[in-house]
TrEMBL record, chain A:
It is found in: Cell membrane. It holds the Pfam family BPD_transp_2. The keyword Nucleus does not apply. This is ABC transporter permease. It is a multi-pass membrane protein. It comes from the Bacteria. The chain crosses the membrane at residues 17-35, 55-87, 99-124, 130-147, 167-186, 217-245, 257-284, 296-319. InterPro entries: ABC_transp_permease. The keyword Methyltransferase does not apply. Keywords: Cell membrane, Membrane, Transmembrane, Transmembrane helix.
UniProtKB/TrEMBL annotation, chain B:
It is a multi-pass membrane protein. Signal peptide: none annotated. The chain crosses the membrane at residues 6-25, 37-57, 63-82, 89-113, 119-136, 157-179, 210-230, 242-258, 293-309. Keywords: Cell membrane, Membrane, Transmembrane, Transmembrane helix. InterPro entries: ABC_transp_permease. It is found in: Cell membrane. It holds the Pfam family BPD_transp_2. This is ABC transporter permease.
Automatic annotation (TrEMBL), chain C:
Residues 6-246, 260-500 form the ABC transporter domain. Keywords: ATP-binding, Nucleotide-binding, Repeat, Transport. The lineage of its organism: Bacteria, Bacillati, Chloroflexota, Anaerolineae, Anaerolineales. CDD domains: ABC_Carb_Monos_I, ABC_Carb_Monos_II. It comes from Thermanaerothrix solaris. This is Sugar ABC transporter ATP-binding protein. SMART domains: AAA (SM00382). InterPro entries: AAA+_ATPase (IPR003593), ABC_carbohydrate_import_ATPase (IPR050107), ABC_transporter-like_ATP-bd (IPR003439), ABC_transporter-like_CS (IPR017871), P-loop_NTPase (IPR027417). One of its GO terms (molecular function) is ATP binding. The keyword Transport applies.
Length: 325, 314, 501
C-alpha cells in the first residue's frame, strides 16, 4: 500500500520539469555535506537561506517574465534602486510610519519600473532584451543619483524580522513558502494559464482570445514588484545602502531560472524549479568555498561549473546526434 | 514604399549638430584638438562595436554581452606580455587576438551547436572570462604598455591626426570589404534575414554563426589592446562600461536588432555620436550616473525609432 | 443548443488584384450537413474564413437567422455560436490537452481559481467521444507536443466543440485522421445533426462527402455554381461541376508533343522519412514529371529529402551512381536545385536586393574579394534573359516585387547554377496568369537543354498541361502513376481522392 503510494508520487515527480534540477541539487548537497562537516546544522542552513533569500524573490519574478516569452535584464538595478530608496527614506531613527512610507515608496518604484518595461515591450513592441538593458542603465543611474556613496542605515526594528523565527521556523523559509503559495495561486488562475499560452505560442493564444499584450505587460510589472520585494529583503538583511548592490544579481537571476528547468524560449517551467535553481547556485558557491578553491580561482570555477550545467543538455543531444537541423 | 533616410546619415547629421551645440555651450569644444580627441575615443568604441555589429546582423536574437569582459582580457594580456617593451608589442597583439579567437569560438559553438541562447551563453562567458582574469593575475597586475604603442594610438602622426584614426579608417575599409565583398559577408546577411532560405541555398549556417562570434570576441580583444595604448594602465574590470555602448552604437547606426540589415558605416557614426554625447555631458559637468540615465533614455528612443517588432494582428 | 441557420450571399473577396471569391453563396440549416467542394484555388477556404470571421469580405452579406451580421474577429463569430476547425491548428504545444481546449473560456470559481478538476472531467468526457480510435489513451493532462497529427486534429475538433457551437465548420478536418477516426467523427456528426447543429464540411475526399453530406455546394473559380442535395448528383457529375467545362477540355496543349526520354538522372529506391513510405521513382534527362495529390500527402517532404534538407532512409542514385545527401550542399554539388513554394519563408531573403537573392547559392564562384561586376553581369543576364524580370534594377529589394516576379527570382537563383535536376515545390502558388506562362516557357527551355524536372503543383490544370507523367501521392505513398491516355483531370481527381471512379 505504502509502496504503491510512493510509486505514484515518484511517477508524478518524474513528469515534472524540475526533476533534473532536483537531482542536481541532491548531488550538490551530498558533495557539499561531505566537504562541510556542519552542513546540516541549523546554523549553516539558516545562513545559506538568509544569504540567498533576496535572489529567490528576484529569480521568481524573472521566471514569470521568461515564461511569458520575455526577459528582464533590469531586475538587479531595481534592487539597487529600492535599496537606496529605503535607506535614504529611513535612517536609523525612523518611526514606524516613516518605515511604512519608505517601504510603500520602494515597492511603488519597483512597480513603476516594471510598468515602464512592460509598456515599452508589450504595447510599443520594443525588443525585450535591449529594452530592459536600457532601462537597467536608467534605474542604476537613478540609484547612484539617490545615494552616490554607499552608506546609511535603517532602524533595528526594521531588520529584526529577517533574523526572527516565527513558530520556530526561520523567516526566510516562511517567505519562500509564501512565494511558492502565491505562485501556486497564480498558476491556478487565468493569468497563469494565459502566461503559459502567451509564452508558448503567442499567435495561437491570440486566436483563442487571450489578451496577449496585457499578459506581457503584467509579467513585467510582476517582475518589477518582485525585484522591489527582493530589494526590501536585502535591505532588511544588510541594513545599509549601496547603489551597486543589485548589479551582480541580474545574471544569477536568469541562470537560476534556467537551472530550474525553465527554458528561455518561454511557455514552460515554473517558480518551484527556480527556487531549486537558486539553491543549486548557492550550493555550487558553497562547495567552491569549502573545497578550498583559492579565492582568485573561485569566479572561474563557479562560472565554468554553471556553463557546464547549462551546456549539458546540448552536449548530450549532440553526442546522441538526435538534433538534426 | 516610403524610402527610409539612411540611419548613417541621420547619425552623422546628429554628430555635427552635437558638435556645434557643444561649441555653443563651451567655447573651445569645437577646437581641432578636442575634435581629434573625441574621434580618438570614438575609434576605440567603434572597434569594440564592430564585432557587435556582425553578431547583431546575424539575427536570431544574436547579441554578445561578453565584449566588455573581452576588452578587459585583451588589455590585460597585452599589458602582461608587452611589459613596456616596444619589441614585444606584436606578441601582445597576437596573443590578445588569439584569446579572442578562442573565447569567440567557444561562444559560437555554444550558440550554434549547443543551442544555448546567445544571451545566456555570452553572459555566462563574461563570468568565465572575469574568472580567468582573476585566476591568472591573482589580482596583481604586472607589465606595462610600450611607448611606441601609446605613440601610435595617441599622438598626432600626420597632419596632426592621431595614428589610431588612420588605423580606424583602414579598419573601416576592411569591415566594408568583409561585409560587402566576401562570401562570409553575403552569408551573414542571408542568415540574419532568413535562416531557412539561407540553408536551402547552400549556406552553412552554423559555421557562419561560429565565425561571427569568433570575430566579435577577437575585435573586442583588439579593442582591449588599443585601450592599453590609450591609458597605459589596466584594471580588473576596465571593459565593463563598454558593453552597453557597443550595442547602442550598433542600434544607432541603423543595424536592425532582428538581424539582416546593417552597416559598419552606421556603427562608426553611432560611435561618434555616443562619444560626443558623453563628452558633452562631461562638459556640462554631468555626473556619471546622469550619463548612465541619458544613455538608457537614448537607447529607448533608438528602439522606438528602429527596434519595433511586428504586431500579432496582421 | 440554439438552432441557427446561416446564409452567406454574394460574398466577394480580392487579394490585391487577384479575385479569390467572385460570388460566394452558402446556406446551411440546423440539423444538416452542407459540404463545400471545389478544385484547388476555387475559393473554398476564403468563403469559410469569411463566414467564421477570420477574413473581412469586400462585398456581399451574412445572415444569421435572417438577420444581417458582421464579424470583426473570429471571437465575435464564436460568441454567436459559429465555430471553425481550421487546417492550421491553433494549439499551444507545451500546454496540456485540457488547458488547450479551455483556453480563452476557462471556468472560474470565486477568487479567480480555475475549476481545473471540472474542466479536466469535461475534457475526459469530450475525449471519450473518440475513445478507442487513438493509438495512445488520450489523457487531459498530456501535452499537445506528445500527440500525433491526427490526435492534435481531434483535440482541435474537441476544442471547437467546447464552445458549444450552433454552426460548426470543419475545414479539411479529416485530412490527418485515419479511417477509424473518420468513422467516429461521422458517427458524432450524425448525433450533432440530430441535436440541431448546422455543420459545414469542407473536404477534398469524394467518398467522405457522399457518406456524410445532406447537400453540397460547388465552387468553381470563386463562384458558387451549384447547390443541391447530394443524392441528386453522381460522383462523375460532381467532378464535372468542379472542373470548368466538364471533362471535355482535359489538356490545353501546352504539353510538348513528343519527348525523347534521355538517360536516367535520378533513381530513388524505397525512400522513407517520418511521413514518406517507401517511395520509388525514376527521372530521366529532359523529362518533366509531376507530383499530384491532395495537399500535405508528402510531396514537399519528398522534394526536401531529394535536396538533402531532411533526413531519409533508402537509396538515391544520381546519374547512375549511389549518392548520399546529408545537406543541401551535397545536392547542390550534384547540380540539384530546389524551388520552394513558400517563397517568403523558404525561398527569399525578403529585405535583400534582387542581386543578393539571385547570387546567394553562387557566391563561392566569385573569388575574394567578390567580383561584383561579374556577379552583376551574370545576374543581369539571367534576370533580363530567361526570367524577363520586371524590376527597377538589381538593387531593388525583393519584397517590393510582385508575387510572380519574386517567384521568378527564386527560380532565377538556380538558373545561375545550371541545374541538371530541378525540384519544384508548388512554384506557381499565388502567381498571376501572365507570369505563369513565362514560367512554363522557362521550364520548357530548361527541358530542351536536358534538365530533368520534378514538379509538385496544387493546380491540376498545370500538372495536366505540362507534365509527361504525374505521380499521385496519398498518405506518404505513390498511389498512382498517370501518363498518356490516363493523364486526364477526372483520373487525377479520382486518384487524389483515393477513390476510383
Amino acid at each position: 500500500m505504502k509502496a504503491a503510494l510512493n510509486f505514484g508520487l515518484l511517477r508524478r515527480l518524474g513528469r515534472q520539469y524540475f526533476l533534473f534540477s532536483l537531482l542536481l541539487l541532491i548531488v550538490g548537497v551530498v558533495i557539499n555535506a561531505s566537504l562541510q562537516a556542519n552542513f546540516f546544522k541549523p546554523i549553516a542552513l539558516v545562513g545559506l537561506l538568509r544569504t540567498y533569500l533576496p535572489l529567490v524573490l528576484l529569480a521568481a519574478g524573472q521566471t514569470i517574465v521568461i515564461i511569458g516569452g520575455g526577459i528582464d535584464l533590469s531586475v538587479g538595478s531595481v534592487v539597487s534602486m529600492v535599496n537606496v530608496i529605503l535607506v535614504t527614506r529611513m535612517g536609523a531613527e525612523a518611526t514606524q510610519s516613516q518605515v511604512l512610507m519608505a517601504v510603500s515608496l520602494g515597492l511603488l518604484a519597483g512597480i513603476l519600473a516594471g510598468a515602464l518595461n512592460g509598456a515599452c515591450i508589450a504595447f510599443l513592441r520594443f525588443q525585450p532584451l535591449v529594452t530592459t538593458f536600457a532601462t537597467s542603465s536608467i534605474f542604476a543611474g537613478i540609484a547612484v543619483w539617490i545615494l552616490p556613496r554607499p552608506g546609511g542605515s535603517v532602524p533595528e526594528s526594521f531588520m529584526q524580522p529577517y533574523r526572527s523565527s516565527p513558530l520556530g521556523i526561520t523567516f526566510p523559509l516562511w517567505v519562500i513558502l509564501g512565494v511558492a503559495l502565491i505562485w501556486w495561486y497564480l498558476r491556478s488562475t487565468r493569468f497563469g494559464r494565459y502566461l503559459y499560452a502567451t509564452g508558448g505560442d503567442a499567435y495561437s493564444a491570440y486566436m483563442s482570445a487571450v489578451p496577449v499584450e496585457w499578459i506581457r505587460f503584467f509579467s513585467y510589472v510582476a517582475s518589477g514588484l518582485m525585484a522591489a520585494l527582493s530589494g526590501l529583503l536585502l535591505t532588511m538583511s544588510i541594513g545599509t545602502g549601496s547603489a551597486l548592490i543589485g548589479l551582480d544579481m541580474t545574471m544569477p537571476s536568469i541562470v537560476s531560472v534556467v537551472l530550474g528547468g525553465t527554458a528561455l524560449s518561454g511557455g514552460g517551467g515554473g517558480v518551484i524549479g527556480t527556487i531549486l535553481g537558486v539553491f543549486i547556485l548557492a550550493i555550487i558557491r558553497n562547495i567552491i568555498s569549502f573545497a578550498n578553491v583559492p579565492s582568485w580561482w573561485q569566479t572561474l570555477v563557479n562560472g565554468l561549473a554553471v556553463m557546464l550545467i547549462l551546456a549539458g543538455p546540448g552536449i548530450w543531444a549532440l553526442i546522441r546526434g538526435r538534433r538534426d537541423s | 514604399m516610403k524610402r527610409r533616410i539612411s540611419p548613417t546619415l541621420i547619425a552623422l547629421a546628429l554628430a555635427i549638430v552635437l558638435f556645434f551645440l557643444g561649441g555653443l555651450i563651451q567655447p573651445g569644444f569645437t577646437s581641432f584638438e578636442l575634435a581629434m580627441n573625441i574621434l580618438r575615443l570614438a575609434a576605440f568604441l567603434g572597434i569594440v562595436a564592430a564585432g557587435q555589429t556582425l553578431v547583431i546582423i546575424s539575427g536570431s536574437e544574436g547579441i554578445d554581452l561578453s565584449v566588455g569582459a573581452m576588452v578587459t582580457l585583451g588589455a590585460i594580456i597585452s599589458y602582461g606580455l608587452i611589459s613596456k617593451r616596444d619589441d614585444r608589442i606584436w606578441i601582445g597583439f597576437l596573443a590578445s587576438l588569439g584569446a579572442g579567437v578562442i573565447i569567440g569560438t567557444l561562444n559560437g559553438i555554444g550558440v550554434a551547436y549547443l543551442r544555448i541562447p546567445p544571451l545566456v551563453m555570452t553572459l555566462g562567458m563574461a563570468t568565465v572570462i572575469q574568472g580567468l582574469i582573476f585566476a591568472v593575475t591573482q589580482g596583481s597586475l604586472e607589465g606595462g604598455s610600450a611607448p611606441l604603442l601609446s605613440k601610435i594610438t595617441t599622438e598626432p602622426l600626420l597632419f596632426g591626426i592621431p595614428g589610431i584614426l588612420y588605423i580606424w579608417a583602414a579598419f573601416a575599409g576592411l569591415m566594408w570589404l568583409l561585409l560587402q565583398r566576401t562570401r562570409y559577408g553575403k552569408n551573414l546577411f542571408a542568415i540574419g534575414t532568413n535562416r531557412v532560405t539561407a540553408r536551402l541555398s547552400g549556406v552553412n549556417v552554423k559555421a557562419t554563426v561560429v565565425t561571427t562570434y569568433m570575430l566579435c570576441s577577437t575585435l573586442a580583444s583588439f579593442g582591449g589592446f588599443i585601450f592599453l595604448g590609450y591609458y597605459e594602465r589596466v584594471f580588473l574590470n576596465l571593459g565593463n562600461p563598454y558593453t552597453l555602448p557597443s550595442i547602442a552604437a550598433v542600434v544607432m547606426g541603423g543595424t536592425v536588432l532582428s538581424g539582416g540589415v546593417g552597416s559598419y558605416w552606421g556603427t562608426m557614426a553611432g560611435s561618434i555620436v555616443l562619444t560626443l554625447i558623453t563628452s558633452l555631458l562631461t562638459t556640462l559637468r554631468m555626473e556619471e550616473h546622469l550619463r548612465q540615465i541619458v544613455y538608457g533614455l537614448i537607447l529607448l528612443v533608438l528602439l522606438a525609432a528602429y527596434g519595433r517588432q511586428r504586431a500579432l494582428r496582421q | 443548443m440554439n438552432k441557427v441557420s446561416l446564409s452567406a450571399q454574394h460574398l466577394v473577396k480580392h487579394y490585391g488584384g487577384v479575385v479569390a471569391l467572385a460570388d460566394g453563396n452558402l446556406e446551411v440549416n440546423p440539423g444538416e450537413v452542407m459540404t463545400l467542394v471545389g478544385a484547388n484555388g476555387s475559393g473554398k477556404s476564403t468563403l469559410g474564413k469569411i463566414v467564421t470571421g477570420v477574413v473581412a469580405p469586400d462585398g456581399g452579406r451574412l445572415l444569421l437567422n435572417d438577420r444581417e451580421v458582421v464579424f470583426r474577429t473570429p471571437h465575435a463569430a464564436r460568441e454567436l455560436g459559429i465555430v471553425a476547425v481550421y487546417q492550421e491548428l491553433s494549439l499551444v504545444p507545451r500546454m496540456t490537452i485540457a488547458e488547450n481546449i479551455w483556453l480563452g473560456h476557462e471556468w472560474e470559481r470565486a477568487g479567480g481559481i480555475l475549476r481545473d478538476a471540472e474542466m479536466r472531467q469535461r475534457t475526459r468526457e469530450l475525449l471519450a467521444l473518440f475513445e478507442g480510435t487513438t493509438h495512445n489513451h488520450l489523457d487531459p493532462d498530456l501535452p499537445i507536443s506528445a500527440l500525433s497529427p491526427g490526435e492534435k486534429q481531434i483535440v482541435e475538433i474537441l476544442k471547437a466543440l467546447s464552445w458549444q457551437p450552433s454552426v460548426l465548420f470543419l475545414d479539411e478536418a479529416t485530412a490527418s485522421l485515419d479511417s477509424r477516426q473518420v468513422n467516429r467523427l461521422f458517427d458524432l456528426i450524425q448525433d450533432w445533426k440530430r441535436q440541431g447543429m448546422a455543420i459545414v464540411f469542407i473536404s477534398h475526399r469524394l467518398d467522405e462527402i457522399y457518406r456524410i453530406a445532406d447537400r453540397v455546394t460547388v465552387l468553381r473559380n470563386g463562384r458558387t455554381v451549384a447547390a443541391a442535395p447530394i443524392s441528386d448528383l453522381s460522383k462523375q457529375e460532381l467532378i464535372n461541376l468542379m472542373i470548368e467545362g466538364g471533362v471535355a477540355t482535359r489538356t490545353n496543349g501546352k504539353r510538348s508533343e513528343s519527348y525523347a526520354a534521355g538517360e536516367e538522372v535520378l533513381r530513388v529506391e524505397s525512400l522513407s522519412t517520418t511521413t514518406l513510405r517507401a517511395i520509388n521513382l525514376v527521372l530521366r534527362r529532359g523529362e518533366l514529371v509531376g507530383l499530384g495529390g491532395l495537399q500535405g500527402q508528402g510531396q514537399t517532404e519528398l522534394l526536401l529529402a531529394l535536396f538533402g534538407a531532411i533526413p531519409y532512409t533508402g537509396q538515391i542514385y544520381l546519374y547512375g551512381r549511389p549518392a548520399t545527401l546529408r545537406r543541401p550542399q551535397d545536392a547542390m554539388r550534384h547540380q540539384i536545385a530546389y524551388v520552394p513554394g513558400e517563397r517568403n519563408t523558404a525561398g527569399l531573403l525578403p529585405i535583400q536586393s534582387i542581386l543578393d537573392n539571385l547570387l546567394l547559392p553562387s557566391w563561392k564562384y566569385y573569388g575574394f574579394p567578390l567580383r561584383i561586376r561579374q556577379a552583376q553581369a551574370d545576374a543581369m543576364a539571367v534576370a533580363g534573359g530567361g526570367l524577363k524580370l520586371v524590376m527597377a534594377g538589381l538593387d531593388q529589394p525583393v519584397n517590393t516585387l510582385s508575387g510572380g516576379n519574386a517567384q521568378k527570382v527564386v527560380l532565377g537563383k538556380w538558373l545561375l547554377r545550371r541545374p541538371q535536376i530541378l525540384l519544384l515545390d508548388d512554384p506557381t502558388k499565388g502567381v498571376d496568369v501572365g507570369t505563369k506562362g513565362e514560367f512554363y516557357k522557362i521550364l520548357s527551355d530548361l527541358r530542351a537543354e536536358g534538365t530533368a524536372i520534378l514538379f509538385y503543383s496544387t493546380d491540376d490544370e498545370e500538372l495536366l498541361g505540362l507534365c509527361d507523367r504525374v505521380l499521385v501521392l496519398h498518405d506518404g505513398k505513390i498511389t498512382a502513376e498517370l501518363s498518356g491516355e490516363r493523364l486526364v483531370h477526372s483520373e487525377l481527381v479520382a486518384a487524389a481522392m483515393g477513390s476510383s471512379t
